[in-house]
């Protein structure tokens, strides 16, 4: 068969067209998400009698709708950052354990066990959180309030189980396997020669890790943490069951305060009027944009380094 | 002054630091496993009580707020249908996109853009995909709340996972296989359909199963698209249809103990379904691993 005949063989055109088209459909979906959220958010925003970005209260179903993203965005960011602070050190420890400490035969099995944490549906974490963790956290929270109450975060007069701290803890558990899995892949790719050179020069295992593995893995761990942050911000059902659903800004993470954009959507959808639905969609648009930025930044860091190519998947 | 020769022992301080880090790392792993064990233990302990035939074969229709009994049959049916429909949408698009990225993209601008946005798409919060379907399908197009609307939302979450896993599997197919096929005069598309895809088939199936397992537990997109109902609805295209994760959320929000017990049993059923899918995926991977093929 001639080369040109091979190139122009029948069927290749349509198949190429279909697969390229599928890729473009994916891009179109991403664009459509933005477009249609805007389309349905605008009428509600026009009906709003307050400023959407700074208003704290959320009463879009009233005859004179008043709603704003202020308190919700604050709760989303605070709870996700807390979750990140709790989860990242543990996740890095887990990743090091599996990549450099665990016996090699066990490592993959133990890695699978940590991955299982990610396989548990979020509604199950919510159920577990609200029936077990909420009452359980009352003791430790009181302890923190009694002895570390001088730190503003742990201050306040009322201490409850359904608090920002408990919600953040559940979020931390949920994002831990994501951060751990990516960090693990990156630690495994640390240059073996450097590791062996460090050991040959008499470094202890920790010194070897500090000098060759961690510097190599740092950008990867940072972007893994950002992916975790994106996931924490978008997490809905687990925290919807735990947050007390208040609309204020308070740094007292042990008190009866806390809400997030996603949790508010889940809790408020049932009784939402037309304007109410639009308001929820507007808040979802804000969430979409924030997570988009966080994820793109994280992906950009990973994509820039070719060594990480395998871990990015 | 004495001249020291040979290798000196590692100083006590350095050894202590090494030990300390080792303990911390082991502790981190233990800390990560504790919640997993706690969740699994409580789900099994609290869920087994209602894990009976009535739960698996009855819906919540005509079950009063304080009544015991009732089940999740309507929710199980709904979840199976929704996940199946979501797969029917997401798998072809995802697979074709992976084929484009590996076989046709050739590192061009479009393929790099698609690849980047597939990564970004994995980070789209599940509630946002639900809101999108609500805004587009239900509010703009005026379609009813239905299992299919839920399936649309789930398929958006599935696509990037399918693309990534299929892409990885297609890249593993040796170049020699493709070249041998071209050398025999087989056109590119037939090479892909007859040589590349069958070679990667089991790997792709594994990826799809993991994607299915991921979306089967999603609640937020369903909440906004299928609407909560207590009745059996076998038709995913018309009217509200329950889903198992949504059932757990609904029951967990009710104040009575009997409802909480149903929520636990629903969670147990859900975890069993997800674990089963995960296990099947692992078995397929293991079955096809090079060590066994010999």
From TrEMBL, chain B:
Record-linked Pfam families: BPD_transp_1
User: Which biological process annotations from GO are given for this protein?
Assistant: phosphate ion transmembrane transport
Q: Which InterPro entries is this protein grouped with?
A: MetI-like, MetI-like_sf, Phosphate_PstA, Phosphate_transprt_permease
Write out the annotated subcellular location.
Cell membrane
Q: Name one GO molecular function term.
A: phosphate transmembrane transporter activity
Q: Does Cell membrane show up as a keyword for this record?
A: yes
Is Secreted found in the keyword set?
A: no
Name the residues that span the membrane: 23-44, 83-102, 114-139, 145-163, 195-216, 263-284
Gene3D superfamilies documented for this protein: MetI-like
Q: How does the protein associate with the membrane? A: Multi-pass membrane protein
One term under GO cellular component = plasma membrane
Concerning its family, UniProt says: Belongs to the binding-protein-dependent transport system permease family. CysTW subfamily.
Give a short account of what the protein does.
Part of the binding-protein-dependent transport system for phosphate; probably responsible for the translocation of the substrate across the membrane.
Instruction: State the name under which the record lists this protein.
Output: Phosphate transport system permease protein PstA
Q: Gene of origin? A: pstA
């Amino acid at each position: 068969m001639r080369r040109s005949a091979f190139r122009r063989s029948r069927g290749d055109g349509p198949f190429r067209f279909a697969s390229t088209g599928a890729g473009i459909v994916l891009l179109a979906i991403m664009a459509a998400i933005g477009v249609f959220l805007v389309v349905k958010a605008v009428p509600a925003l026009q009906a709003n009698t307050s400023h959407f970005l700074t208003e704290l209260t959320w009463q879009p179903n009233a005859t004179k709708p008043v709603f704003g993203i202020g308190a919700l965005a604050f709760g989303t960011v605070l709870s996700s950052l807390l979750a990140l602070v709790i989860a990242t050190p543990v996740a890095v420890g887990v990743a090091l354990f599996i990549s450099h400490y665990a016996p090699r035969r066990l490592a993959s099995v133990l890695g699978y066990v940590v991955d299982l944490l990610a396989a548990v549906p979020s509604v199950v974490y919510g159920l577990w959180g609200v029936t077990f963790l909420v009452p359980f956290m009352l003791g430790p929270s009181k302890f923190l309030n009694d002895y570390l109450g001088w730190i503003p975060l742990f201050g306040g007069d009322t201490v409850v189980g359904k608090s920002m701290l408990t919600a953040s803890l559940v979020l931390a558990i949920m994002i831990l396997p994501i951060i751990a899995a990516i960090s693990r892949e990156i630690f495994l790719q640390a240059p073996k020669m450097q590791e062996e050179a460090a050991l040959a020069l008499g470094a202890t295992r920790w010194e070897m890790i500090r000098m060759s593995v961690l510097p190599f893995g740092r950008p990867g761990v940072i972007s893994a943490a950002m992916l975790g942050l994106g996931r924490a911000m978008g997490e809905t059902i687990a925290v919807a069951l735990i947050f007390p659903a208040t609309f204020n800004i308070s740094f007292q993470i042990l008190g009866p305060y806390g809400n997030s954009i996603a949790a508010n959507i889940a809790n408020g959808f049932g009784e939402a009027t037309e304007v109410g639905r639009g308001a929820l969609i507007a808040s979802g648009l804000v969430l979409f944009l924030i997570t988009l930025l966080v994820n793109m930044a994280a992906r950009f860091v990973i994509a820039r380094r070719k060594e990480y190519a395998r871990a990015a998947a | 002054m004495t001249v020291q020769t040979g290798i000196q022992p590692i100083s006590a301080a350095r050894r202590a630091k090494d030990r300390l880090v080792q303990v911390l790392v082991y502790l981190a792993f233990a800390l990560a496993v504790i919640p997993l064990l706690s969740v699994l233990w409580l789900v099994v302990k609290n869920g087994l009580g209602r894990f009976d035939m009535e739960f698996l074969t009855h819906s919540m229709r005509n079950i009063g707020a304080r009544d015991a009994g009732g089940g999740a049959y309507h929710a199980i049916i709904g979840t199976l249908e929704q996940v199946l429909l979501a797969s029917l949408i997401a798998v072809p698009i995802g697979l074709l996109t992976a084929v484009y990225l590996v076989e046709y993209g050739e590192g061009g601008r479009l393929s790099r853009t698609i690849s980047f946005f597939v990564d970004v798409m994995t980070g789209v919060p599940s509630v946002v995909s639900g809101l999108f379907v609500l805004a587009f399908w239900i509010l703009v197009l005026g379609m009813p709340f239905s299992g299919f609307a839920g399936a649309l939302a789930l398929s958006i979450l599935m696509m990037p996972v399918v693309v990534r896993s299929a892409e990885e599997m297609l890249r593993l197919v040796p170049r020699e296989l493709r070249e041998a096929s071209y050398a025999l005069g087989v056109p590119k598309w037939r090479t892909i359909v007859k040589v590349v895809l069958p070679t990667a088939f089991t790997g792709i199936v594994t990826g799809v199963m993991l994607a299915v397992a991921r979306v089967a537990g999603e609640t937020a997109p369903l909440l906004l698209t299928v609407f909560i109902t207590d009745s059996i609805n076998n038709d995913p295209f018309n009217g509200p249809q329950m889903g198992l994760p949504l059932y757990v959320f609904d029951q967990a929000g009710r104040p009575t103990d009997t409802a909480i017990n149903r929520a636990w049993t629903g969670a147990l059923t859900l975890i069993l379904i997800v674990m089963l899918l995960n296990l099947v995926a692992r078995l397929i991977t293991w079955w096809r691993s090079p060590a066994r093929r010999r």
